[in-house]
Amino acid sequence: MAKITLENLAHSYLPKPKSEDDFALKELNHDWVDGEAYALLGASGCGKSTLLNIISGLLHPSQGRILFNGRDVTNAPTTERNIAQVFQFPVVYDTMTVRDNLAFPLRNRGADPTYIKERVQQIAAMIGMEDTLNRKARGLTADAKQKISLGRGMVREDVNALLFDEPLTVIDPHMKWELRTQLKSLHHEFGHTMIYVTHDQTEALTFADKVVVMYDGRVVQMGTPQELFEQPEHTFVGYFIGSPGMNVLEAQVDGDKAVLGGTQISLGKGFGPLTGKVELGVRPEFTSLSSGDVGLPVRIKRVEDVGRHKIVRADFNGTDVNVLAPEGTEISPDLNRIVFDPAGVNVYSDSWRVAPKVA
């Protein structure tokens, strides 16, 4: 296992980048704690795979250093980094059996045959392929081949880190859940440093100890699922995490009050002078419907009953707002306003969260 340090790390695919916009991966300074499980989460093109490939040694960064346990490996080839990487699409040896595919990394390093046999059997059970160990990989389905790739990545116990680049893309939904559970079990048992790239928030939040959210080539927040949900440090985090995502509304903030479209509301906490584009971020879980003169006037567009609750889709001065209403709530015509729980209101300036003033 290894502590992974990213020091002034950045990368551009252009030979002579002239500005920050030319960088696919903007400057990073982060420590990845030895033995923790991380998920790199973000939309396609945000820099997740670029960062993973720099860590593995498949890509050399334009600037900065990468260290494993304090040792500079920036110029070290992949073979010297002692990592295992599983890619988005299956990489298997078609002419080999499933057993030989799984055993290959161990045989390549001269492991004891008895240990190889036991370890391959253990991994085969983990990925549900005990009955196909003696079959050739050629002719197996794409999801079966990807399970072989996952197994081969997990078969070594002595790696510095396990890297996964959207490995469950071709796996059926039920097997995705089982394999995520197995990966978490493997992590708890052996304590490998794991980095898992995904654009799926469910995968990220159920797999990782810490989620690293990326946006436009930049890490905008690293934290536990609870931290990302309760205090999104960037409006993208609030939008991307949660279903539905956080409501974001332009506002004028003065102390502990905010004005939205001519309506004043209380924030429950005070803020100093703000510059730039000011917005409130409130998750649907902290938003409720009201009637009369209390709250922001909205027009309800539709109601979606999803079983555990209802999602109310509303419009506030041209901005979409979502409200979660308890199952069984009657959405009557007079419920034409929304109210925010002050405990769930975050204030943003130019998309970044502003901490309230300490009393």
Can you identify the CATH superfamily of the largest domain?
P-loop containing nucleotide triphosphate hydrolases
For the residues shown, what is the average pLDDT? Answer: 90
Shape: globular
Helix-residue proportion? 10-25%
Low-pLDDT runs of 5+ residues are: none
Helical stretch tally? 9
Total discrete domains: 2
Taking Cα atoms only, what radius of gyration do you get, to the nearest Å? 24 Å
CATH architecture of the largest domain: 3-Layer(aba) Sandwich
CATH topology group of the largest domain: Rossmann fold
The major sheet is characterized as:
6 strands, mixed
CATH class category name of the largest domain: Alpha Beta
Oligomer class? single chain
Q: Kindly state the number of beta strands.
A: 22
Q: State the strand order across the main sheet.
A: 6-7-8-3-9-10
Strand content: 25-35%
Gap from first CA to last CA = 44 Å
SS-based structural class? alpha+beta
